[in-house]
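Hi support team,

I'm filing this because I wasn't sure whether my run with flavin mononucleotide finished correctly. The job status page said complete, but I'd like someone to confirm that the output block is well-formed before I use it downstream. Pasting the exact inputs I used:
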Amino acid sequence: MSNLRLCRNKHGVLGRPRSKGNILFQLTGSIACYKACNVISKLVQEGCDVKTVCSVNALKFIGKSTLEGLTHNAVYVDTFEDRSALEHIELTKWMDLAIICPATANIINKMAAGIGDDYISTIFLAFDFKKPYLVAPAMNQNMWAHPATKRSVDILEGWGVKMIGPGTGYQACGDKGAGRLSEPDAIYKEIKKNL
Ligand SMILES: Cc1cc2nc3c(=O)[nH]c(=O)nc-3n(C[C@H](O)[C@H](O)[C@H](O)COP(=O)(O)O)c2cc1C
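And here is everything the job wrote out:
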């Protein structure tokens, strides 16, 4: 699916509006995926070109059709899909900013270990650190407090990755504590600040 939004320039010629930023928006397997849709919708309304990448487990929480409908772009899931075999490299060149929202404990620990066994972790290995890379964690408080996660967050921050939150409060499992996804508005503002 291509980006279908068209508008007329001052000469009346129909074309794509100039993007206010190319955002690679990546989602992983958390119940907080539904909150990410608000952020994506706001970015698109603001004039950003948003391309989404989902982990296989993210698709258990959100449908491709929702993301395609919101962004007017196809959703990337499988590195070996029938498109350009080197699209993960092209995406790192295309993007002005990358974000994982929500980011699971799994993806945070995988990235810090230098593993590239799915689309999101492979893109991260090919990432150009001159551009901003944001991570908005969402997980149970014990996962967030786990020594593996703590160490991984330190490693990622040392490489220049910016953490957004997480917040503290009610969690889907019924616990209260740190690990909750930051509010969509705060995430949106952080993206705009870093563009
Ligand atoms: C209902 C449900 C909710 C989950 N929510 C979270 C979550 O918020 N954060 C998290 O780190 N893992 C969560 N998990 C576990 C992850 O989905 C699991 O670790 C998965 O392997 C992550 O894969 P991914 O990082 O490739 O998306 C949840 C699992 C289930 C079944």
